[in-house]
Amino acid sequence: xxxxxxxxxxxxxxxxxxxxxxxxxxxxxxxxxxxxxxxxxxxxxxxxxxxxxxxxxxxxxxxxxxxxxxxxxxxxxxxxxxxxxxxxxxxxxxxxxxxxxxxxxxxxxxxxxxxxxxxxxxxxxxxxxxxxxxxxxxxxxxxxxxxxxxxxxxxxxxxxxxxxxxxxxxxxxxxxxxxxxxxxxxxxxxxxxxxxxxxxxxxxxxxxxxxxxxxxxxxxxxxxxxxxxxxxxxxxxxxxxxxxxxxxxxxxxxxxxxxxxxxxxxxxxxxxxxxxxxxxxxxxxxxxxxxxxxxxxxxxxxxxxxxxxxxxxxxxxxxxxxxxxxxxxxxxxxxxxxxxxxxxxxxxxxxxxxxxxxxxxxxxxxxxxxxxxxxxxxxx
Length: 380
What we know:
The chain is an alpha/beta fold and 380 residues long. The protein has 3 domains: 2-101; 106-249, Trna Endonuclease, Chain: A, domain 1 (3-Layer(aba) Sandwich), CATH 3.40.1350; 287-372. It is built from 10 helices and 7 strands. It has helices at residues 2-32, 37-104, 107-124, 170-176, 181-205, 207-210, 224-233, 237-243, 251-329, 359-366, and strands at residues 133-135, 139-140, 146-147, 151-154, 160-164, 217-220, 246-249. The longest helix is centred in the last third of the chain and has 79 residues, at 251-329.
């Protein structure tokens, strides 16, 4: 913008110089010849008409320049404030980073940080504490020494996966603070060696012998950069760990593993529900067989009762009432009502029980349904 202003000012000054030169020439001609006075007046008017817009333009340019200068001063002040705040934030970040690095040099702080990161991962995968995993369970090796892994994840087949999050990071932290490449490479090589040494220690504990576990243990590194830095110094580190039944995992790979475990638990829960539904269905089918048998017996008993009742009514009519009528004819008793014997007549029952028609219940009577269901006690 300053270049544009300088260009405008140059043009304005050039025009002004040209106009001034023309006025001087016209004035000199008028002094030599009075006949040019009229011409001088006309030229002066023309010059005034030419200069007036230039004066207006110069005034506007002056106003714009003043406003631009004020805006530039405000922007400069804001920029200075942002620089100051950024410097304060950088100092604060540097201070906090220094304190974090100092804290991470302590083994108990590193261990706690790894445990917290591990807990967040396992919870985000959908597994439940005390159901799908246990934190820091205790066991002992053959020599009686105490073993306490950071996490034991239960699999759906009643097996376990052991995870350890205790990783040495001192050399890595020193490498991040190194000022030259040679020192940084040396410290990163030491970091890779420390990780390999921790792999050897985990392998020697043989956690899979203390738990019903696959023959490997997971070594959890709380940040991706820890593994990548170690692999830069020692590219064969993963193969070295696999050969010793140790799987090195970062947050990304461990989350994938834990979500796979959570998926198998969901599949196992669905399969268990299916098995329970199947068992209940078979039990219900068997109970229907028992119920059909009872209903058949009840229907037979009802039919037998109706037959006995009708036989009793027939005996009453053919055997008992004959004697009663004879007593009336002999005058021993007086007839009451329309009946000769004066006795009410019971009504025959002509309705029989409804037979079973459903295939399942009919089969149950013959024992066919019992072959389709497991033997269960009668639901009497």
